[in-house]
Amino acid sequence: MPRLIRWRDGQAVWAEDPFTDVDDDQPVPQGDVIVSLARFQREGRTLLGEGRNLGVRLAADEAPESLIIDLARLAVVCLAFPKFRDGRAYSAARVLRERMAYTGELRAVGDVVLDLAVPVLRCGFDTVVPADSSSPDQWTAAARRFRHVYQRSADGREPAFAQRAKGEMSEA
Amino acid sequence: MYRYDDIDREMLADRVAEFRDQCGRRLAGEMTEDQFKPLRLMNGLYLQLHAYMLRIAIPYGSLNAAQLRKLAQVSRTYDRGYGHFTTRTNLQLHWIKLKDAPDILDELAGVGLHAIQTSGNCIRNLTADPHAGATADEVDDPRIWAEAIRQWSTFHPEFSFLPRKFKIAVTASPKDRGAIRVYDIGLRLHRDDEGALNFEVLVGGGLGRLPHLGPVIRERLPVRHLLSYLQAILRVYNRHGRRDNIHKARIKILVASLGATEFARQVEEEWSLTDKEAVDLPATELARIRAGFAPAGFETLPPLSATFESARAADPALARFARRNVLPHKHPGYALVNISLKSIGETPGDCSAEQMDVVADLAERYSMNEARVTYEQNLLLPHVKLDDVPAVHAALVDAGLATANIALISDIIACPGLDYCALANARAIPIAQDIARRFADPALAETVGELKIKISGCINACGHHHVGHIGILGVDKKGEEFYQLSLGGSAEDDAALGQVLGPALSADRVAPAIDQLVEVYLRERREGERFIDTFRRAGLAPFKEAVYAQAH
User: How many CB atoms lie within 10 A of CB B231?
Assistant: First the structure.
């Protein structure tokens, strides 16, 4: 079973991936599967009716809003990073988490490397399939490197302005 | 000025530690240049023609004396004893060694300076009206809002990998001193009929290959919602901006292709779905930032200073400096003093470490510990007592910083060009120097009056050539440097893009052509007309004829 990095209780750990990623031209095997948006729109109800865990992968130009109806029944949503410089998935992730209240697994796939740890985790992803040889320990360290953040995002971290309002930090 | 608190300082310290680790891995060979490149760019470190270049952010162009002294010390210790101020009010050091970069950033962090987001496809360093806090025509201090945006945009997780770089400018006056119509987002503060503060929001301006003036997408945005509205704009852009072609990736292309009305509709729709309270700063935080810019220590003075008046009556050089470089302040008895970095024959925007130290001393002693950088690549002392102007002038004369040419023909904007830049097609600096030498006589320059020449060494337009009264664009013609002239551009309230004059000229013909253009203007001008006014009335024809007639 392929491995992925899972974020759990503020720490990254290795995890097994129980899902099979199914291409559009392949038949759907038994067990938990991840399919494309197009296939999900055609066969999603049937697949969900078979009592298995189902995931959908969205290409970078596909809108998370297209999952609105069945979102609560999905076990995983994968968002694609075709290049690490392509930041569309960050917006999609925040929309899923903050606007559509998605609480299932949100997976970053594609050209996802250690140096993206901060934005990936801050935008609400909780699993990644790293494209480099990075380890969970490195991801944990990268995520902890910055003691503060300046803005709210999908990770729920308290921004600087809220810390200041509580008087947690002293003025210069 | 806003002062960093512990949170701001720890943000910088954490960033420096991260970059030191990344540089260490690169120098140890654990990372390839390809892997390292995006990381160093996020810290303002470019690899240029001859060496690494470090672009240091100067948020909204504001510097205190300690910061300016630190820039001087860094340029002396790690570079060749000078720096280059840019049209985005950054300071570039052009001769940096990679191994020194973490130490430099560490030193800068000690005075609250950094190179964060001075490169890459993210929200870049903010610019604001250089006259903020000193000009009578502003409705609020734009730096308060620029600082709010600075914090919000720093390490923004959603907007660190936009389709392309993203630049925001803020002004609070009817008179545009921030070129806001050529920014990705231009923000102009104004008061509505009830006296409430609002932003006029312009989106999709920009220069480069396909210049656009930004249209207004919202006339009145209540100021408390600034950040949530910016998030909505950025999200629409991040999701829908083009990523297939680097030349069509700026937001101006998205706005132009959708049309301003449709783009505005999408932003409004996104904004209507936004949890504004989660994004917008609470009133307490805005008040905290505002307090950082509170005017302090202005004395009640008579509007005229006898000291200043008698000194300038006795000294023609001071009189000229006062005419060209000194501007009225909102507090009686004070003035804004412009410091030109365009002394004749030098590189526009360059400043030596010694000069930075002099300006730091003057800022500390005479200008409430503050200096500014302007997008026209000059410096400014915002709060000088008229009584002190003669002393400031004398010190500037000694430092070679008293050139009295603000807004005149020798006050030229020029990018570093092919002398430094890996992107350039042609040199910009020698062209600027040639032109300035021809108008070295200050009386001649004053006779010609306001004339803004802007030179870019390539189509990326870092020298703002599209919006120069005379714009000069370096092009490559079969390996030779040629220059295309355009007339009639402006970056101010009367913003306009210049019109191409004719076929590109060889380098040695550029300065003579400027002479010819000026001759036409002096011949054709009517009472009170600036160069650009005459051009707008008389059109391109007489200018074109003068420059190209001899070619027949």
Answer: 25
